[in-house]
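User: Show me a protein chain along with its predicted structure.
Assistant: Here is one chain, sequence first, then structure tokens.
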Amino acid sequence: MLKKTEQLQMNFSQSSSLYNILIPKDNFWRRLNESVDFGFVREDIQKNYSEDMGRPAESPELMLKFLLLKTQRKLSDRDLIDRVRYDMEMKYFLGYQPEDTEFINPSLLSKFRSLRLKDSSLLDLMIRKTVQIALEKGVISDHEAVIMDSTHSNAMYQHVSPREELIHRAKELRKSVYAVDPAMHDRMPAKKESTGLLEDEMEYCRELSQLISEDQRFTNFAGIQESLHYLEEGIEDCDREIEFSRDHDAKVGHKTADTSFFGYKTHIAMTPERVITAAVITTGEKHDGKQLQELTKKTEEAGITIDAIIGDGAYSEKDNIEYTAEKDIKLASKLSECVLHGVRKENGFEFNKDAGMYVCPAGHMAIRKAKQGSARDSSGNDSRVETYYFDAEKCRHCPLKEGCYKEGSKTKTYSVKIKSDTHIAQMDYMETEEFQELYSHRYKIEAKNAEIKNIYDYGNAKASGITGMTLQGACTLFLTNLKRIDELEREKEANASR
């Protein structure tokens, strides 16, 4: 039960004066306490509290402050509470007295994350709050250019290929059988010579499954039956080429043609002053350019009128060029030879600008590409296309192959036209001084991405699932924004005093 009129306030005692001695006036957490009213979080999450049942809950403002400290200090819930006992800076920020020794139970933080913050719009809410503070302090303008980019975070749990998962399940089944009958070692199917192919492992697992299921001696052993059914389910799943991980939301994304990651992407819009105005968190395979319109909308909702958008080649696809033109927003994004092709919406192929390859709707990346056609064919038309070749072996087992892959074909290709009038107009804009001046600010977002990864360990997810990643993003981006606003305010005060 959440008290309707509860407010988070400092309760002063005779020892409160210690804070004036121990906590400097320019301390970040002190300035944060004085400049931010954390009551904004209450309205968003109060729907997840009962109004008339249960014991009175801890203040959501206090719980959010604990999460911010946890994000900055990189501590477990238990270690965080232990640190509060003797850390005066943390006690002051949380509103405790120097002599206080009783604090919340660490389990409440886990409950707050999983129950109170579910279905909340905390990420957008916290970013909008920081933008509002930045506007009030005059460190950014309500008319701004914004820079867009994404940064990736590895999933908390390892990604396991279907073949690796089958190997693990088959091993567990054999172990359960040997525990009952060690003599079964000599009766097990012969393992295939290691080829690395999923099909060979599936064939072995089917032979193993058949052998165990036909042996009536094992029918009444629950452990063996559970392992057997788990293996059989894995075989069925592999027919649909399902990926395995304890993090069911995470997906494989590609950084280059040769490197990939398993996890999530945080798509960011930021002013040249390095204040983040919007963020969208997606699974790892999502295309950067597809988030431009959502980032634009969220930035405008935060109170910023966008004059220009600055980004790398991922943001220069045709839909974005037309969208920004309609809104009278300049788009300082360099066309790459491949990104300007756009995406055929009816079949879902998307271009990965880091790898320079197209990715099919099932998430498989092309293995090579080749140019075909000529700038002027026999009819006088520009017939140039770029053809992308996919691994036909993967296509053969793909659950989405119907209508995409012709059964029995030795190759699978996807071709795109190289130019359009929209892109030619963008190419002309790329030659202007205005474009060059805007694009010169793009490097700033690279530094911002490095900051949140190095200082807040944002390169790794701290929880499983996209909900946990979104909460991590909310706290991290909120803190990094407030620290940047504090820096800008100090610079402004210093300049005013000169």
